[in-house]
Design brief:
The chain is of the alpha/beta class and about 240 residues long. Helix content is about 55%, strand content about 10%. It is built from ten helices and seven strands. A hairpin with a 2-residue loop joins strand 6 and strand 7.
């Protein structure tokens, strides 16, 4: 449990620091003992977070209490240290907030973190389409990668929202004969379907070579009947190129 000794830093924050996300040297912050009350990620979850931060950067800031004590974001902090990244994105909780209030907020967020990355992305997408924030701002606020929200938008437009609701409720969908809960897999399948359809559309609109040649002959016969040297020269070029 946390104690009053965790409140050693007492410098009052400036008003402009209270509601802004900013970066600090990672050496300037430390974990509040409150973070020990929450369970550690398992190895698979930690590796997933590490890979995500390595690929996309730190999307969600850690929450600081008393300016430099991390009360929410232990795993992000540990991943950044393990990756050798020397800065960390932070958000200051209001200075006058009590420890009890801080603990209540952290516990609420911990409950939401039991959602899968897919569920988090869908939740973020729902917030985004409500018109409150841009996709980038939403990704930052919900701690998900921006492409995941884009995947949700594409799936919704192409397949409707039922698939997203199924995934959000913990279910899976069948893609290429296999069950999946991955937004990326569904998105890639949609893009593949679109590519096949585009190819089919192009094939259906392309006339057989014999039809093209027949049309060229008709045009050629018409131009030959005209007394125009320029048209004749142009027609010869077109005819020769088409007949090859």
């Amino acid at each position: 449990m946390y104690t009053k000794q965790d409140e050693w830093h007492t410098t009052k924050l400036k008003p402009s620091e209270i509601q802004e996300v900013y970066s600090l040297p990672i050496s300037a912050v430390k974990l509040h003992s409150m973070t020990e009350d929450n369970p550690l990620m398992n190895d698979e979850e930690f590796l997933e977070l590490k890979n995500d931060i390595e690929l996309n950067g730190q999307m969600e800031p850690v929450d600081l209490y008393k300016k430099n004590l991390i009360v929410d974001g232990r795993h992000r902090y540990l991943v950044l240290k393990e990756l050798g990244i020397d800065t960390i994105k932070c958000f200051n909780l209001p200075y006058m907030m009590s420890l009890d209030d801080v603990e209540a907020i952290v516990k609420s967020r911990e409950t939401r973190r039991h959602q899968t990355p897919t569920q988090k992305a869908i939740r973020a997408w729902k917030h985004h389409i409500s018109g409150n924030d841009s996709m980038s701002a939403t990704a930052l606020k919900y701690g998900v990668a921006k492409p995941q929200i884009a995947y949700c938008s594409k799936i919704s437009k192409s397949k409707g929202t039922d698939i997203l609701e199924t995934l959000f409720n913990g279910g899976s969908v069948v893609v290429d004969g296999k069950h999946t809960k991955s937004l990326a897999n569904i998105y890639n399948s949609i893009k593949a379907e679109e590519a096949v359809k585009m190819k089919q559309d192009l094939s259906s609109t392309k006339k057989p070579d014999r039809e093209v040649i027949a049309e060229a002959n008709t045009v050629w016969d018409f131009i030959k009947s005209r007394d125009d040297e320029v048209l004749m020269a142009l027609a010869k070029i077109i005819y020769n190129n088409t007949s090859k």
